[in-house]
Structures are given as structure tokens and as C-alpha cells.
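User: My collaborator and I are trying to settle a disagreement about how two of our proteins should look. Neither of us wants to argue from intuition anymore, so we agreed to look at predicted structures for both before our next call. Could you fold the first one, then the second, and keep them clearly separated?

Assistant: That sounds like a sensible way to settle it. I'll keep them separate. The first protein:
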Amino acid sequence: MAAFSYIAQELCSFWDNYGWHCPAILLLSWTGYFLLILAYRLTFHPLAKFPGPKIAAATHAYEFWFDVVRWGRYTHEIRRMHERYGECVLVDLLYESIRMSFIAAILNSLILFMHLDTAKLISPVILFLPSLQGVGTVDHDQHRLRRGAINNFFSRSQIYRLESLINENAQRLCDRLLDLRDQKPIRVVDPYSCFSSDVITEYCFGESFEYLSQPTWEPNYRTALNILFGYIHIFRHFPFLGYLIEIIPLARSIVSRISRNAGLVMKDLKPVIVAQCVSPRQVIIPEKIRRTESISTTINGTSQTTILSSLMASNLPPSEKTIERLSAEANVLLIGGTQSTSVTLELATYHLLANPLIAERLRSELSAAVPDPKRLPAWKDLEKLPYFTAVILETLRLVYGAPGRLPRIATDQDLFYSGTWVSPRSHDKVKVSHVIPKGHAIGMSAFIIHMDETIFPNAATFKPERWLDEMGKVNRGLERYLLSFSRGSRNCIGMQLAYCELYVCIAALQLRVLPKMRLYETNDLDVQYDHDELVGKPRSDSQGVRVLIV
């Protein structure tokens, strides 16, 4: 006690004599520390030698400006950086961006990609709500454990068995759309979202959300996702808010005020959507998980286990089978199974309606292969139609998937880049080489690669013919630059499901519904990528692709 008394007396004495200096001392100390950090980042940091704006290397302010102030437009700025600085650009304190052939070479090298992992700290995906962190598992072994438990459900052979469910829902979608003839315009993404949500929820839980059975297209799961994605840049730069929003109702109100009018939308949402959007682990999804242990789904007349029931019966450790953990997994599956497919169908609809010659060529190819549009051929047979495949690949190229920078880390070895770059000022070819130290992340952007004119001439134009060779067959070599589903062990697990949905649904729509569809007050700006909120978004005042059915 005497020692504590002595220390307290000394502190009081110091404060009496120098207390008024303390704020100045703290300010000077912080300033000195900050300057030292800046000096280190600009000179001695392992990534300091990479080209790029110095402010991006020194602070997060540059990224914050384009992410939050300009709202989701850092990918556009990174593209401009590449045009100015070359193939390898430092875009953040933590990682650099790579474009064009180098990243394609990395993603297509099986040996090298085994050593690439995902970076949790910088991923815009998992700096989100805690309930969505299943998508951002960092540890390689844990990711392999979690993914291995559901891999078989998304294998090509398993999707073949799911095809009848997809076909049934596609026909229901067409029937519902044809019932809307001579009525008011609709946003096509809403019915497409209902279709994709019903498929993935039936597969996950053994019972769908039955959105296609509703008298209207809303509520649907995409409505919730749009609200959720509207927070992403706020949560990316202020990640603690992602945890507060799930546990403190007041935090939702605060974040709503600062996140692009999200509060105005949220107050109008039905309780079921709020439950799915803000507290998915507390209401709907957990309840379905509790019921799904004994539920199976019937496919082709055969009873099969669902994804969630299989996880609950698996040999995963108990920590991987809690309601909280399974809810996070279900959220990820629902997001991936709903958002990407519905947006891709929306874009395909627009380009087929806006380009009659393309639509007619596709319709001719499909009509020759499909005698009865209500009885579609098997998915594997639809894939054999070259122009149909070209239309789907071109649609995926312009959808971009997640257009922002998706990071990877080489954990075991340095990465080497050597190539040439054409300077925009002198137009001379410049030889460049870089060594990316192991442990540092590289980012890739599907948008930047898909809009690379050296790979895809007239990249902004919807041109399915670019995917066909001189013999009229699909040019598979070009597919290595298609990053809509990413690549490697961290690619989109639902890729085969998405492809099956696209082939089946577009075939049904093109033969049954699209001939009766007309665009309504919609143009290219309504489908062009303007900014990202995890997924690519058009301009903020766009109402999406709207159509009339006549």
C-alpha cells in the first residue's frame, strides 16, 4: 500500500507542476509517431517500391475518399491507376492491385494457386455483419473443412439431379410473367430474385420461401440484400459498426442516417425482411435450421437430404454445427444463390431486348433444339448450343460478379512479375519487373480485367460473337479471363448451380416470355456499372431494367 501511495503522490506532484503541458506533449508525441509511420510506409515498407499515388501508400484517406465520400468508386480509380502506372499498382497500405495477363496466369496456375489464401483484414466481404462472415473464413485449413462439408452439394453431378427443381421453378416464373400481360411495368430483377431465392432455399432447407407463389413480387430476399449491401463501405472502414448493428438497435438508426438514405428504406420494410436483413440469425433462418434436421427435399421423385440437414448430421466439430454458425453459412448461400443469378438474368434480358438481331439468332438456335419450350432439354444438351453459350458468357463478362478488388495472399513464396507496359505518355513499351513479397496481398478486379481492351476489344459492347472461333465453336481459351466466379479454391462454390439456372431459365424466357416483352424507359445507363456495394450497381437514380409484357 505504501508503494501505491508513493506512486499516487508522485503523479499528483507531476500533474501540479507539468499538467498544463500534458496535452501539448501528447499532441507532439502523436505527431512524431504519425510522421515516423508515414516515413516508414513511404520508404522502408516492403511495398513502398510499387508505383501508385503516394497518399494511397501513406494513409487510408485515399481509399476512404473513393469508397465512402465518392461511394463505391475506388475500382474506377484503380483502373485509372493501372492506365497511368502499369500492371502492378499499390492501391492500399496493405496490398497492391494486379491486372491483365499476370493475374490470369496466377489464377490459372494450379501449383501457384495452392499457396494463395484470402486476406481477412482487407476483404470488403467479411468486414460486414458478423452473420455473414462464413464467406470470409481466413484460415486455409478451416476454410477447407467448411467448404469440404458442402462441396458435393454443388458438384456438377449433384446439380444434374437438381435440374428438375430448377426447370419447375423456371416454368412457374414464365407462367407468372405471362399472367402480367397488358398490365403496368415491372422491374424484371424482382421476379428473377424470387426464382433464384426459391431454388436455393428449397435446396438449403427442404422448403422454399415460396416467393413465386406470392400475389406480388415483394417482399423478396433481394430487397434485404440491397439494404445490407448499402452499408458495406461504412462497415469496411468502421468495422466495429458491423457488430453493433446486430446487438444494439440504436446503432442501426445511427448507421442508417449515414449510409445513403438506408434508414428511409428500412423503416418501410416488412418485419420479415427486417428479420432477414438485420437479424438473420435470430428469427427466420435459425427456425428453418431447427426444423431442417429431419427435412428432406424431393427431386426427381427421390427424397434427398438438404444442405443444412447434411451439415447437422456431418462429422464436423460441434463448434461448426451451432445455430449461429449454420445461420452464417445459410446467409452466405442465400446471398450467393439469390443476388448473382437474378442480376445476371436481368442483364441478359436487357441485352436480348435491346439487340433484336442477337435475340433472333438465339431464338433460332434454341427453337431448332427445343421443340416444346415447356419441356426443355437437359442442361448438358443446352450447353452444346454454341451461340447460347456465347450469350451467357458475354452476359457474365458484363455482370462482373463482385467488381471490387478481391485479395489473395501468397503465404509460402514470393511472386515474380516480368513483362512490358505501354506508357500512356510516351507510348513506348517499358520493361517492368516486380517481386511481391510473400505474406502481402494482391488484389484483382473482375471489372478491370473484363473491360481490358487488349483482351476484349470494344469491351463495353455486348457482343456474344467474341466467344466464338472461326468455326462457330466456343473459344474456351478466352474463358481463362472470365472472373465472374473468381478462380481457384476460393472461387464461387455455387458456380455450377448458377450456370444451370442461367441455361434453363434463359432458354425458357427466350422461347416463352421475351418475345412478348418490351423495354420500358430503360437504357444502357440502367445496366452499366457505376459503383460497387460488394456487387456492381448502376447509377443511383436508376430504377433497373423495367419491362412491359404485351
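The second protein, kept apart from the first:
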Amino acid sequence: MDLPENKGACCAMKRRRFHKWSAKSAGLFWLSLLLIPTVVFGQGEKEKRVPVTFRYTSGHSVQSVAVSGTFNDWAKDADPMFNSDSGDTWKTRLYLPYGTYEYRFLVNGKQWVRDPENPYYGGENSNSLL
């Protein structure tokens, strides 16, 4: 039986639960508004990657070729190239973000060679602008 003196306590309890829940909901709502642009829109232009095919043609006996540059911190073995047709052409394809890169080919693990097919040189290295 609902007595008049118990009705106020009941409504106050429901009101308190509602306020507690709505405060949590509001907090989560505002937090999501802050995070959504970072997660969804933060992967803008700088995250787009472009396929780049590197080719090196040698006129002599070559055992291995790798491409190394600012895109892989000049790691000598990070991006090996492959000779698929057993000829003199070595290739690899990388997916790089837009930017300007310096690179060289590492032939037989010892000899650094500029890209002879890239006319845009930057000092000691070949340069590419994506």
C-alpha cells in the first residue's frame, strides 16, 4: 500500500538513480565526441599510401639488391628486391605515405648505387616526391 509519506522517498530514489545514470551517459557522450574525430578523421591525408615500384637493372652479375632509404631508416635488409625473370632487372613494390624520400640501392650487400633511372638526385642519394 502506498502511503503518502513513502511516495516521496520512492520518487527521490528513482530521481537519484536517473541523475546517476544520466551523469555517466553524459560523460561517455562527451568522451566519445572527443575521441571520434581522432579515430575516424585522424587517418587523413598523411595515412594514405601510394604503391611505388622500385626497379634496378644491372649490366653485370648481381646476387642481391635491396632498396634502402629514409622510408625504412636506411635498413640494409628491410626491403629486398626480387629478380623474377632471371634477367638483369630487380623489382619490389612498397606502399609509402605521401612525402619526399631519399633512397639508394644496395647491391650484393656492399655497394650503394643511386637510381640511374631517376633524374631527380638529391646530393648523394636519389630522391622521390610522392
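Some points you might bring to the call about the second protein. Residues 45-129 form a domain with the Immunoglobulin-like fold (CATH 2.60.40.10). The chain has a mean pLDDT of 75.
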